[in-house]
Amino acid sequence: MKHSMRRQLMALLAGMILFALVLIGIVNYCFLGTFYTSMKEKSLLKTYDMLNAYMLSEAASGTEDAEDAEDAEDAEEAEEADGEAPYGEKRHGGRDTEEEVFSYEIHQVAVQDNIRILVTDVDFTDLRSTGRESRSDALRLFGYFTGYYRGTVVVRSQTSTYVIQETEDEDISTEYLEMWGQLDSGDWFLLRTPLESIATTARLSNIFYAIVGLVVILISMILVWFFSRRFTEPITQLTDLSMRMANLDFEARYTGEADSEIGQLGRNFNRMSDELETTISELKSANAELMQDNERKTQVDEMRKEFLNSVSHELKTPIALIQGYAEGLKDDIASDPESRDFYLEVIMDEANKMNGMVRKLLTLNQLEFGNEQVAMERFDLRQLIQGVVSGMQILIGEKKADVSFPLDHPVYVWGDEFQIEEVVTNYLSNALNHLDYDRRIEIRVGEEDGIVTTTVFNTGDPIPEKDLDRVFEKFYKVDKARTREYGGSGIGLSIVKAIMDRHHGSCGVRNYENGVAFWFTLEGKDALC
């Protein structure tokens, strides 16, 4: 699909990740340097607090014992021999244990935060340093203290006891963040940490985030492609369901079992499908009844007169026969038993024909006068035809007919199933009564533009062209002798015509070289009214 939800979801996710990467890159470029320097400054303040506390604790430890003088002299000799005392030089003797602890703590801080620490007395004669540049650091601190330093200095913050500033070592082209001043113990100090290139760090960071982002986008697209089916499949099913409902296919059902909003929507679709089918069925019935009511007002009188004339005409012959044979019996014309039985059989046969004709006339009268309600519903025409054929198997066997109905799939139509069954029965009975030659009957069902046409063909003599337009008239008989032979009344096809008029369908007959085909049409499942 052009606007697939899966593609939209993938595009949305990729766009969000890309936006996040660009935003991170901008933040890195604009604020990483400031953040980095601020964190370095916090490290210096933390180290200052620790160093200040430690020097106060050492100053309060008391005076040295005389017995430590020798150790102090050894320390002074070592200082003169080495030029400096790394990792903590002794100003006084007798404190080896404290000096070792001091040196270890200061050294750990220096390694961890990459800070060089220098502490000296006010005379700059006793140096204690964590680096090997104690003399140069002492000269730098002396220059800051005396104001003789001529290098570039940018002060970031300043108090009465310390100064935090940025400087550049021109010899090695490296920027430093420094903190110098006087401790509460009276000693001078210098804390110094290098500032790496912030632009380089930000650029490397952005490249790293871009690579990681592309990998994340690729993995996310793969995961979305596989897992989005779980979210889009119910929506696709609902889309297909709505299309089928739009085509009035009310057998479509949502089969999902999720308890989410989509699952609830699917169950609502199922309920709406049931309601729509019931409503449309009721509307079709009401529409058919309304159209018949409009026609009924102008046809009632004419149909009543026509009905009375037709009944009187059709009943005249059987009544005359019954009367004649009854008078013969009364006058004892049939004196032998066989003659009397023949007279009685004729009377009974004519009476049965009159009874059947009257029943058909009543049915036709109800159809034409609109007293027979049309219950419009959607049903499978194939199943109905198969039922009619099965019900007439005995008669089919007696006629030695070969009936074929090759339809192998359901065909849904709108109509009164009971009345359509009578139409199919009349057509099939008519075909059996006029069967000849190959004694073959073919039933076909076809659909075009929402109209379903059913055709019943039988081999035999074609109907004369002059009679084709009159076969559906009441009491009209093409071959009166043959019609009387099988007991036909000429009303069956009239009933078919009346039923199809009630359904607003059509019916007709066509001649072929080897037989005759009767047909009728109904609205298919796509028709609304």
Relevant terms:
rod-shaped, alpha+beta, 7-stranded mixed β-sheet, 57% helix, single chain, 6-stranded antiparallel β-sheet, 529 residues
How would you describe this protein?
By secondary structure, the chain is of the alpha+beta class. The protein contains 12 helices and 13 strands. The chain has helices spanning 5-59, 69-82, 96-113, 134-146, 198-246, 261-330, 337-369, 381-391, 393-398, 417-433, 480-485, 492-502, and strands spanning 116-120, 127-129, 153-158, 162-169, 174-182, 188-195, 377-380, 402-404, 412-415, 440-448, 451-459, 507-512, 515-524. Strands 7, 8, 9, 10, 11, 12 and 13 form a 7-stranded mixed beta sheet that branches. It has a 6-stranded antiparallel beta sheet with strand order 2-1-6-5-4-3, sandwiched between helices. A hairpin with a 5-residue loop joins strand 5 (174-182) and strand 6 (188-195). It starts with a helix and ends in a 5-residue tail after the last strand.
Residue fraction in strands: 15-25%
Query: Roughly what percent helix?
Result: 55-70%
Separation of the first and last Cα atoms: 33 Å
Oligomerization:
single chain
Largest β sheet strand count, sense and barrel closure = 7 strands, mixed
User: Could you name the ranges where pLDDT drops below 50 across 5 or more consecutive residues?
Assistant: 62-67, 81-101, 480-484
CA-atom Rg in angstroms: 56 Å
Structural class: alpha+beta
Number of helices: 12
Q: N-to-C SSE series? A: HHHEEHEEEEHHHEHHEEHEEHHEE
